[in-house]
Amino acid sequence: MSDSTGKSDGKLLDVKDLKIYYPIHAGVFLKKVGDVKAVDGVSFTVKEGETLGLVGESGCGKTTVGKGIMRLVDVTSGTIDFTTKAGETIDVVPLDRGSMRPIRAEVQMIYQDPFSSLNPRWSVGDIIAEPLGVHMPELSGKERDDKVAWLLEKVGLRGEQAGRYPHEFSGGQRQRVGIARALATAPRLVLADEPVSALDVSIQAQVVNLMQDLQEEFGLTYLFIAHDLSVVEHISHRIAVMYLGNLVEIGPAREVYSNPIHPYTRALISAVPLPEPSMGRPDRQRLVGEVPSPLNKPSGCPFRTRCPLAVESCAGDLPPLIEVAPDRQVACPVVAGDSASGA
Amino acid sequence: MTGTQVGVRILLGNPLTLMGAAGVVFLSVVATLAPFLAPHSVSVHDLTSTLGNALVSPSWTHPFGTDWHGSDIFSKVIMGTRISLAIGLSASLVSMFIGLLVGVLSGYFGGWVDSILMRFTDVVLAFPSLLLTILIAASLGPGLMSIFLALTVSGWAGNARMVRSLVLTLREQEFVMAAVGAGARPGRIIAYHILPNCLSTLIVLFTMRVGITILSEASLNFLGLGAPAQAPSWGVMVFYGMDHVTRAPWCSIWPATAIAFTVLCFNFLGDGLRDALDPKMRDVL
Lengths: 343, 285
Hints:
The complex is a heterodimer of chains A (about 350) and B (about 280).
Chain A: E1 11-26, E2 31-47, E3 51-55, H1 62-69, E4 77-83, E5 89-91, H2 97-104, E6 107-110, H3 124-135, H4 141-154, H5 171-183, E7 189-193, H6 201-218, E8 221-226, H7 229-235, E9 238-243, E10 246-252, H8 253-258, H9 263-270, E11 322-325, E12 328-330, H10 333-340
Chain B: H1 3-13, H2 15-37, H3 47-50, H4 73-109, H5 111-126, H6 129-140, H7 144-171, H8 174-182, H9 186-222, H10 234-241, H11 250-276
Helix pairs in contact in B: 1-11, 2-4, 2-11, 4-5, 4-7, 4-9, 4-11, 5-7, 6-7, 7-9, 8-9, 9-10, 9-11, 10-11
């Protein structure tokens, strides 16, 4: 799945210099005392029909990027251009709730926790029908029920299970319900926020395969957010790696995986468990130290405090993403030069 | 079987719930028909004819005995159902409603709405409720209306705090995020996602409040801030009966039993309602 889809180069989503800061208030008058820089200048594009895997360790801001695109959190600055079905390109950042609503039909999210993402007091039929009620209020009750049953069957459940409640389902089945809800309004872009990280490994594969089947059937575009590289490699066409609020590397999945360039990506990929550990891994890299706090980020390259290759100049400016190969960018001047010259 | 049918079955299948429901119905009937059920008059004007009967122990004519005025305690307990239920239910309902409104607005919208509402709530909570009550009674004059207002004003703030903390946790749940992501309006999210998930806590809170309110009504009456000393209020009866508790324990025991019975009935009914409204409990059947 990691080769190019051969679809048009049409950008469905174009995120430029996205910043999402959470202000910290303290004291009696709730004075602002600082910012948690959850997302600190992230730019990437998602092409129509592809899956972009967004990876990084916990707390690096990858989920916040997804929530920012969904406008579930306030965006501090930057633009998020989304191309609608009608062919218009709209920046969703300045939109208010009302003008955001039609966009929401086209951008849907699959949430991380299948236990908290379904209202325990609603039947799964009502849960799946919720976006329909918002975006297609003209549907009759019968039409809505039919659509819910159809969606349930599309995600591998049975239509007559619509009357059941979430607690009657297993984690994997609940996540299927979450997927059905995300697909209810026939979206073009689906943001999957760690959709399988809460599931057993055996179930993970089923859900990932289901997502791939649905992508083929409906021509979906995925932004697949995860911390598990092996899952991401399986489903993604391209991978973007995040560290502490910044992108450090982006490129085709197979290449990033087989030939990581950024020192952080290298360490991340060398940490993926091997199916045959006894075979050993010659280039195992262990990172030392802790991830710095996003409240007090290091100057320059955010990774320099743990980077084995750090030099003095890394403390200067934030390194930009440098194109080292077609469709391949790395935010590290130290290694980018080597790669570009063919090392 | 529909959800409603299962709910009804849970409600009727549990003997304690059934007892609670029957008790609440019984109390309501007694309150409605009180003047016809009471065998003796409890009017203060009849004192002269009954004073000779003061502190008579229970007998066939006075099943619960008489108090130090010679009034029939059985009749007073029956008549007292009216005051206790009226105050207990109305003050609990209204303070519940205000607390719900403030708590939901505060918890859901946060920011300056939360700051303003919670600081106001803090002021009410920090103010001694007795002082607040005396102020209200002093400005309105003693009476049941003052008691109702005093209990409502001092009761809502705690409810608001409780509801707010509930809403704060619910708001962070992913299903609320999913509803926002689907484009649902805040009013819809509150009505269909937040409130149903507050329900079980609200029911328990309400049944507890009914009990607390009936007891507070008693203590306020005792301070002379509510109904006059001879009024057939269970609280008044318990407190004035305490003066004679060694000689005539029945003066306090019967109204106290009535309070305990009422509070228990509401608690049992509340527990049953909570289970009947919870989809998870439907499997147990």
